[in-house]
Amino acid sequence: MEDGPGSTLSTGQLPMALPLLYGANYSVYVRIARIVFAEKEVAYEQEQVDIFSDSESNSRYRMIHPFGKIPALDHDGFLLFETSAITRYIDEGFSGPCLQPTDAKRRARMNQIIGIADNYLYQELVWGIYVEGVEKPARGEARDHGRFSKALSLAPRYLEVMDAFAAQAPWMAGADISLADLHLVPIFAYFLKAEQGQQILQQRPALSAWWDRVSSRPSVKSTDQVS
Length: 227
Ligand SMILES: N[C@@H](CCC(=O)N[C@@H](CS)C(=O)NCC(=O)O)C(=O)O
Fold this sequence. Notes:
alpha+beta; Glutaredoxin; Glutathione S-transferase Yfyf (Class Pi), Chain A, domain 2; 2 domains; 4 strands; 6% strand; binds glutathione
């Protein structure tokens, strides 16, 4: 078992509880945290929270995440929400490979890519293309054609930009894998379930090679199940 941040276990001290991650496996953001735990090889527990259901337990969960999103983390009573804060806490608070560059420029690149993922890619590639293009038709629901075509028109430009980053180094922020790569994985995993996503990626060789590298990581394979 992994000791917690700052803990020096000595006689008479209770061991810290395992970090508890709240959230459902289908969630892009929950999966980012799961991948980071796996990369660090940190043991944790997970309580499935289906944020889209109206269950009683969800109203209790709102005490932990006041904005009703997943994930959230409880580490020995220390409550945290916002995935970027959670993944940095896991990286900095536990042993295992460091997932953030120390060089200022590379760290800025990592932060930039996480910002791009949160502010552009997640909405268009997941909600615009995957949800409208794959999930809604599979559920027999009507597609929002405007939403879908807007996302399809933006995606090639988004991938062109990501391809340029991927062409600079094996990983998004340099020679070593970082939180930037791990943050992108669940977004790309949904996007590539759409045939259009596959086609757009095929036109970007550096990004395709990056996807082959990152998607073969054990941390990515072991968090593949979404239900
Ligand atoms: N800024 C949040 C975003 C989390 C987020 O949007 N999670 C989605 C699931 S992937 C969610 O909870 N959606 C529920 C909703 O929007 O009502 C973070 O970084 O943790």
